[in-house]
Amino acid sequence: MSETITEMILPGTYIDVRAEGLIGVGGISTGNIGVVGTASRGPVNKLFVISSYSEALDLFGPYDAWPAAATDQANALTLTRTIEQLFRGGASTVYAVRVGDFTGDPPVMTWSIDDGGGSVLGVQASSPGTWANAIALSLNATDKTLQVTLDKQKETHDASTAGTLAAAITADSRLLVVSTAPADAAKVPTTVTPGTAVGSNGEKAGGGTSVTAGLDLLAPEAVNIVVIGGVGAKDAKANMLAHLESTENDGKERMGVLGVTKDGFNDLLPDDIVSNARVILVAPGILAADAVLKSQVTLPAAYAAALVAGRLSTLGVHISLTNKDIAAAGLAQAYSRGQQKNLLGKQMLVLRNELGIRVLKGITTDTGAFRQISVRRTVDYAKAGVRIGANPYIGRLNNVRVRAALKATLDGFLSQMVLDEMLVGYTLDVSATRAQEIAGQAIVTMTLQPTFSIDFVKVIMNLQ
């Protein structure tokens, strides 16, 4: 909208409409989830926004069978399985990045299309990974077509000449891309020679630079909750803490959800312990159906963290996770009352089987005064609203009138938070000294009083 709208009503009489009086705070995202993990299919280090588990299967392929041996579980594919738990928990929008521990470029399955005298066209799978090992290519000499099959998917492309086939693959194929353009487009393809089968999906990306690269792609997005697929807190916390700090410094605050590395109460690792107001540490692991094995398996707490993240995304920022139900088939470990109390003292979000699988107490790993997840999310919501409300004022006049309009905009937003029971009260001031006016600065000072949840209810029963 322009700075002013001037309309002549009578000769020599104008009405000046100041746009500042029309500015409000727009929508604020609260439940977008970001996830990084390993997969057998899909581009590496590329961001996708998905809204269903079927989209994840189409992009990243199915996960592999869950290994029975604990030593093999660290190399299981994590991204699709984690996304399955996110949507099972209730997620609606997921920002997903496939990462991998590769030396050099990720390996891609290739084929050479020959004419009897040498290669006339090179093609490769549309994305890296072992998924492409199952693609079958065959040339039909009768109708001069190339047949491409993968499970129930089938493609047929005109192969009358190398140039025609290259154009057909480029235009229509979802399974292949042209890697080497034909030197002579008129050559007629006769045979197909497959390359070396792909042997790695970069499964060992438990932390380090590959995960950092994936998290960096999530950093500028409107993500509110972050999960590192399938990796316990011991290996994932360094990446997570660095990501949360950098995004907070950039005004992109979010929560990170991690799972303990081992479930057993006596096996819990000191290296899992985190103390951060933006980190949620979940214990124990969960029981879940494995789509490949067609049976129930025990998944580590990193997948319980995904389930909790999905559930958290369904709640208003001021609604506590305490006593909320979680869509798990069961728990990998049943903690006693004493053990639960001990874990709460270590600031862990504990799942328990009590009238279904529920969160015992919705807390972060912070050891300070305000530990509830809802408090941190409410403050982040208010900060986001202030940024959105203040942004349209940047570049306008820095005078008393415009600052009063800015305060009115922010006042309306914070007042609505009080009406929505996110806050019980607040103070707000927008000011600028003469030097700040000249420098183009306006200072917004606010004090928030978040609404606290009832964490426990004490019941005294006198039965006769």
Q: Please identify the top-level CATH class of the largest domain.
A: Alpha Beta
Q: What is the CATH architecture annotation of the largest domain?
A: 3-Layer(aba) Sandwich
Structural class based on helices, strands and sheet pairing: alpha+beta
Question: Order of strands across the widest beta sheet?
Answer: 4-5-3-13-14-15-19-20
Number of strands: 22
Instruction: Count every helix, treating DSSP H or I runs of 4 or more residues as helices.
Output: 11
User: How many separate structural domains?
Assistant: 3
Indicate the CATH topology of the largest domain: Rossmann fold
- Report, as a whole number of angstroms, the end-to-end distance: 71 Å
Give the integer mean of the pLDDT values. Answer: 90
Helix content, binned percent: 25-40%
Low-confidence segments: 1-6
Query: What is the overall shape?
Result: flat
In short:
This protein has 464 residues and is an alpha+beta fold. The chain has helices at residues 53-60, 70-73, 79-89, 162-172, 209-218, 233-249, 301-312, 337-345, 373-390, 400-419, 434-439, and strands at residues 4-10, 13-18, 33-37, 47-50, 94-98, 110-114, 119-125, 136-140, 145-150, 153-158, 176-180, 191-194, 225-228, 255-259, 279-283, 286-290, 295-299, 330-331, 349-353, 357-359, 423-431, 443-450.
What is the topology?
Elements: E1 4-10, E2 13-18, E3 33-37, E4 47-50, H1 53-60, H2 70-73, H3 79-89, E5 94-98, E6 110-114, E7 119-125, E8 136-140, E9 145-150, E10 153-158, H4 162-172, E11 176-180, E12 191-194, H5 209-218, E13 225-228, H6 233-249, E14 255-259, E15 279-283, E16 286-290, E17 295-299, H7 301-312, E18 330-331, H8 337-345, E19 349-353, E20 357-359, H9 373-390, H10 400-419, E21 423-431, H11 434-439, E22 443-450
Parallel strand pairs: 3-5, 3-13, 13-14, 14-15, 15-19
Antiparallel strand pairs: 1-2, 4-5, 6-7, 6-12, 7-11, 8-9, 9-10, 16-17, 16-18, 19-20, 21-22
